């Protein structure tokens, strides 16, 4: 008998580039790529020239990081970017011009009308139309709630969101984590936190990426100052929610607050819909929505907290209540790992969606 | 010349009893009584029998704690209670029957229609009508925002509040503070907070008064479970805000969340009014309102945080923005020391108000 020909899979598998492989989200990305079904041919790791030559493990193999150059995108089918806005703004179009579909996790292209902003559980169809060859990944704070809100919107028709965030320090990168850990070393074992400024004096002037001490504190600020006192992070949640849900006139009010949690953003959401809602109906939707875990039984001590949610993929939802004074509004408490669904996971899901389309 | 007669002040000064003098709020109360103008004759310290005989400093003198008995209220003009609800429910009427005006900081009487619920900056007149001889002090979470909201309501007419809290552990008493401090010792110097359940395993089962670990975490729960999934703390903020502001049909939605801060509650507030508002007008009101500090200049890094506010008396307000999609709504971030204005200070202010009326 003639032996069966070698399966022609290997040559047709797409080449993936991970740009920003050494960062906080990049590190989680490599772990996700190692866990997910392996659909990729080559996985090329790209970072700034100072990280070039480092070796990182992905799919159980050591891969050498190459420097970010135009040539690095040679033969790449899909390039995931996890780099600062200005680096994306410069390099994503270069990668796209080299023929790669770019999945970008910066803010550079999210509001570009020619760039779709995609959450695979909510608007997967949007990823197919990409005039610039770029697909944008939403901000981590938007992503921490939007899967749950998308499911409720599909059923009830969302009209208004009032959101308050409890954002983890890893949203500010590894520097944020180091800052919190360093400060915890200074306040643990003390009786600080009861007199004006005592935490600030103990922590000193170096508060890392934050504008105030973060140990034993909360900071009502994330991002840069925009018009009329809004922070960039607050406007991102508003504008991105509108674009992803396809409701351009959605009313959205957001206040972003940083809390001393390492990883996993939490949000309180007051969501007003077109018609009356019930908790039972909302439970029914949330308990079957892809990517959502309903964890809502306070009598049994069941509500999500970052300590339980960190390291997991879904959006966790608890504390579902109907507003006492408005039968069209629900209150929810939502947690999502800002480095997984809030960053690397959603980017990987978009890349997998596009890989399936290209194949 | 005949010498002037001795001033008759001393005998007419009212006798004050502090019931619960050894607790978290009681301790702050003794410090406030030592700092405020001394209008009191005797200050009698009352606590549970197991604390009787302890000596505590007030007005620079050591005072022996006496046990809570009916006789302990003999000759008392005003009795401040800072004890659990059931102790207040039992003993406040006994003190009132002995002729004392009771200022009670428990939840036992707050919603009693025959008991006024008083914030001296907002509704001082209410303290004069007290059919049961009892005046109630609001919950610490309500108090952390209500002075600011009262000032805005007087100008703009409040219609709706959507509130999310960032509540300090001392709201759960000294046990809450000890629990956070013990847990910080266990997580400082580690790389915990990045894997599901790693903080929980490090902290162990003893989470003190909380239902989850509080170090490196936030917990969307405060109080006891009430109907339809609401917590008692959330309903208190709703019902007390309505009563204090005198707006029985005010729409109020609250989600209460505990954060790893020792003392000072923070809240985000989405406040909708009868008519259009502007940030300039709101700033004007808040900058002159008694008991309020406006600290709102993000360009200069100015917004309140618990680390700065702890140990101070006022309600601090920052991040004032007009809702982008609703010209009748403001967003605010508010901080108040939950043991001072949120507890001891407001109680002392009510007692001083009544002392002035009695004299």
From TrEMBL, chains A, B:
Residues 15-130 form the Semialdehyde dehydrogenase NAD-binding domain. Phosphate binds at residue 110. SMART domains: Semialdhyde_dh. It comes from the Bacteria. Its EC number is 1.2.1.11. The active site is at residues 140, 265. NADP(+) binds at residues 22-25, 50-51, 170-171, 338. GO terms for molecular function: aspartate-semialdehyde dehydrogenase activity. Belongs to the aspartate-semialdehyde dehydrogenase family. Homodimer. This is Aspartate-semialdehyde dehydrogenase. It comes from Streptomyces solicavernae. The lineage of its organism: Bacteria, Bacillati, Actinomycetota, Actinomycetes, Kitasatosporales.
């Amino acid at each position: 008998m003639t032996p069966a020909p070698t399966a022609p899979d290997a040559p047709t598998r797409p080449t993936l580039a991970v740009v920003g492989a050494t960062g906080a989200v990049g590190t989680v990305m490599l772990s996700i790529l190692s866990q997910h079904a392996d659909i990729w041919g080559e996985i090329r790791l790209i970072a700034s020239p100072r990280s070039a030559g480092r070796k990182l493990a992905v799919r159980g193999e050591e891969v050498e990081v190459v420097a970010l150059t135009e040539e690095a995108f040679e033969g790449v089918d899909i390039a995931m970017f996890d780099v600062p806005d200005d680096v994306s703004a410069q390099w994503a179009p270069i990668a796209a011009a080299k023929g790669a579909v770019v999945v970008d996790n910066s803010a550079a292209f999210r509001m570009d009308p020619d760039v779709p902003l995609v959450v695979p559980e909510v608007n997967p169809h949007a990823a197919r139309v990409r005039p610039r060859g770029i697909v944008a990944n939403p901000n981590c704070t938007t992503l921490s709630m939007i899967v749950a809100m998308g499911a409720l919107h599909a059923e009830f028709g969302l009209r208004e969101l009032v959101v308050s965030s409890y954002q983890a320090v890893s949203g500010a990168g590894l520097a944020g984590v180091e800052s919190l850990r360093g400060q915890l070393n200074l306040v643990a074992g003390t009786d600080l936190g009861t007199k004006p400024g005592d935490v600030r004096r103990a922590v000193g002037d170096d508060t890392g990426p934050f504008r105030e001490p973060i140990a034993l504190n909360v900071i009502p600020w994330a991002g840069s100052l925009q018009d009329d006192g809004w922070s960039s992070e607050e406007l991102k949640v508003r504008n991105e929610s509108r674009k992803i849900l396809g409701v351009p006139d959605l009313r959205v009010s957001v206040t972003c607050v940083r809390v001393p949690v390492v990883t996993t953003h939490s949000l309180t959401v007051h969501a007003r819909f077109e018609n009356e809602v019930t908790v039972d109906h909302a439970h029914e939707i949330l308990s079957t929505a892809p990517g959502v875990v309903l964890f809502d039984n306070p009598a049994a001590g069941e509500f999500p907290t970052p300590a339980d949610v960190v390291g997991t993929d879904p959006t966790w939802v608890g504390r579902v209540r109907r507003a006492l004074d408005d039968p069209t509004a629900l209150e929810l408490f939502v947690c999502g790992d800002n480095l997984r669904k809030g960053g690397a996971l959603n980017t990987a899901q978009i890349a997998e969606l596009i890989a399936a389309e290209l194949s």
